[in-house]
Amino acid sequence: QITLKESGPTLVRPTQTLTLTCTFSGFSLNTSGVGVGWIRQPPGKALEWLGINYWDDDKRYSPSLETRVTITKDTSKNQVVLTMTNMDPADTATYHCARVYDSSGYYFFDYWGQGSLVTVSS
Amino acid sequence: QSVLTQPPSASGTPGQRVTISCSGSSSNIGSNTVNWYQQLPGTAPKLLIYTNNQRPSGVPDRFSGSKSGTSASLAISGLQSEDEAVYFCAAWDNSLSGLWVFGGGTTLTVL
Fold this sequence. Notes:
The complex is a heterodimer of chains A (122) and B (111).
Chain A (H helix, E strand, L loop, with lengths): L2 E5 L3 E2 L5 E8 L9 E7 L6 E7 L4 E3 L7 E6 L4 E6 L8 E11 L2 E7 L3 E5 L2
Parallel strand pairs in A: 2-11
Antiparallel strand pairs in A: 1-3, 3-8, 4-5, 4-9, 5-6, 7-8, 9-10, 9-11
Chain B lengths: L8 E4 L5 E6 L10 E6 L6 E4 L13 E6 L2 E6 L8 E9 L5 E4 L3 E5 L1
Parallel strand pairs in B: 1-9
Antiparallel strand pairs in B: 2-6, 3-4, 3-7, 5-6, 7-8, 7-9
């Protein structure tokens, strides 16, 4: 059974750095074709992709956020960490992590975590 | 404002067939595959359809997907009350250095 769960602060002050951890089970990030990505959803708004870290440590980031976002993995702990700098109230959102899977060359998010609501406020 | 456009709401009665559209452009749906997700309140999104029309194991065949040009559709036949949820589409977009884009989500109400 594959599960992912996000953990981290629920409240962050403006200009601070957010660190969220995705702890997963049921798969390995050593497996070819697998990755873990982060997606967020501001209240009442659409989903926004933040980035992905793949099994081979290849990282891809959203062009609009790549100067602020870093995604690292710890394969031994089955964890992926999202770091986002210079947080702003506009970054208030539910942050999800999700597994990326390669099916014959086609990638998609197949399992998602429930999400972690992060509020940015002074 | 979402890159992929979905109607904000849809509805149907039990047993009916409903379709939800997802409109994009040549850089996303027009050149890549589409995936669909179902999200019940307070739960993680669940994969319903991948690579345009494939169902993961465990997803009922009442759910089907299709794609034509720069648009995609999710069809739900034999509508059931438990289908009441938010549905959203996703695709890779080749613009800039590439990114995943999503639809704004469609809230399905079973009347």
